Amino acid sequence: MNQQDIKQSLKHGKHMLEKWYPESSYKDSSVRLFYVIAIACMELQIAKKPIEGLTIPDGYGTKWKITECECGLNLNNDSMEKYCTRCGQRILWEDYVDEPERC
What we know:
The chain is of the alpha+beta class. The protein has helices at residues 3-20, 23-26, 30-44; strands spanning 51-57, 62-68, 101-102. The chain folds into 2 domains: 3-44; 49-84 and 92-103, no CATH class. Helix 1 runs antiparallel to helix 3 (30-44). The longest helix is centred in the N-terminal third of the chain and has 18 residues, at 3-20. The radius of gyration is 19 Å and the shape is elongated.
């Protein structure tokens, strides 16, 4: 499944959830809960860019950018993991430059 397929499935899933199991009628339903969890899991599959946080100097003329997931976990820039180990969000490293900035 590519990113566009996931987005389309999410849109359809959210629509059908509200049509078949509206929150006003099925708030505590285990079936509704199943669909809510399934939609949340699919949303994690949509790759998001890491958040660029602090730039920290190492004392030797190099500055390192700290990148974070939306959940706040610092990501390992060396391995560029595909998923956050805390929340499971898929990470999009496409535009990220792995080289440190020089002073």
